[in-house]
Design goal:
Elements (H helix, E strand, L loop, with lengths): L13 H13 L3 H14 L4 H8 L3 H14 L18 H11 L16 H11 L7 H10 L2 E9 L7 H13 L11 E3 L9 E6 L11 E3 L10 E4 L23 E4 L11 H9 L6
Parallel strand pairs: 1-4, 5-6
Antiparallel strand pairs: 1-3, 2-5
């Protein structure tokens, strides 16, 4: 069988030769480095068979590189990456995953936890049949591509009293316009100290979206009845002859406490409704 004719690269200028040398020293991808070395050796007059023995590649590969460089120049050195495996999760399912992640587990009847972790979200999606199989890393990428990030939530409380606004305006009006020769007694009740709002975490859109709160807000547990209750009734502008207010105890007593910010013995200044409340609830008046 006749020997195949040798193939050589076209004539290289000094600038192209220096550029090929730089590529062989600084190429990030091995494919680009090997192709530049093949072109450089061919430009130095080495035959295809000599190049294959040095580079440990086939003759067809060397000829393809040389022909491609003669046609397209340095663009032929760049690797042509394939697109990879096609997506197994479509756009509709991705939107569904992001929608479920932005909801609360309580919306799906789940009370064991209040926020979605990637593992819990994966189990929920598999149980509902939203996806046949999915990994936590895939969920993280889906949420990141949709700009859904792990954010802190805030808490808020609201009164269940239908007359709350009317009472609030009446109290504020008493502050602004106190009665002549009278006292404004301020009463405050609050429940267990563990009702202090604490921030939680949830999946929320990274950028503000119309109709969504940024950051997210959830209603706090304000109706809890367990634990000691407290009730204070500060008296503004105490008489000059009175001493400073009684110090607050270091620990909350096991029963409700109602005390005045004036000296002991001023409990008679409180209205009858407060005294009746103290008697019914076994509270002590200062």
């Amino acid at each position: 069988m006749a020997r195949r004719p040798s193939v050589f690269v076209r004539h290289l200028s000094m600038e192209e030769g220096r550029k090929l040398q730089r590529v062989t020293r600084t190429a990030k991808y091995p494919v680009r480095l090997r192709r530049a070395a093949v072109v450089l050796m061919s430009g130095q007059g080495q035959a295809v068979r000599d190049i294959t023995s040095l580079m440990q590649v086939s003759e067809d590969c060397v000829r393809d590189v040389i022909h491609a460089f003669n046609e397209r120049g340095f663009a032929a050195l760049d690797p042509e990456w394939s697109g990879g495996r096609s997506r197994t999760i479509g756009e509709a399912i991705r939107e569904r995953i992001c929608l479920i992640a932005r909801t609360s587990p309580a919306d799906w009847g789940i009370t064991a936890f209040s926020t979605w972790s990637l593992a819990r979200l994966r189990e929920h999606l598999l149980d509902r049949g939203t996806v046949a199989t999915v990994s936590r890393e895939t969920l993280r990428r889906v949420l990141r591509d949709a700009s859904v990030s792990w954010q802190a939530t805030t808490t808020w409380k609201a009164s269940t009293d239908p007359d709350f606004l009317a009472k609030m305006h009446r109290i504020l009006d008493l502050y602004d316009h106190p009665p002549h020769n009278g006292r404004v007694i301020c009463l405050d009740e609050f429940g267990p100290l563990n009702l202090v709002p604490r921030k939680a975490k949830a999946w929320r859109p990274a950028a503000p979206i119309t109709g969504h709160l940024q950051p997210s807000a959830r209603r706090d547990a304000h109706a809890r009845r367990a634990g000691p209750g407290h009730r204070e009734d500060p008296l503004p502008d105490p008489p000059p002859q009175t001493a400073p207010r009684v110090p607050r105890p270091a620990q909350s007593p096991p029963r409700p406490l109602a005390r005045s910010k004036a000296l002991p013995g001023h409990g008679q200044l409180l209205p009858a409704s407060t005294r009746n409340w103290a008697a019914d609830n076994d509270a002590e008046l200062g």
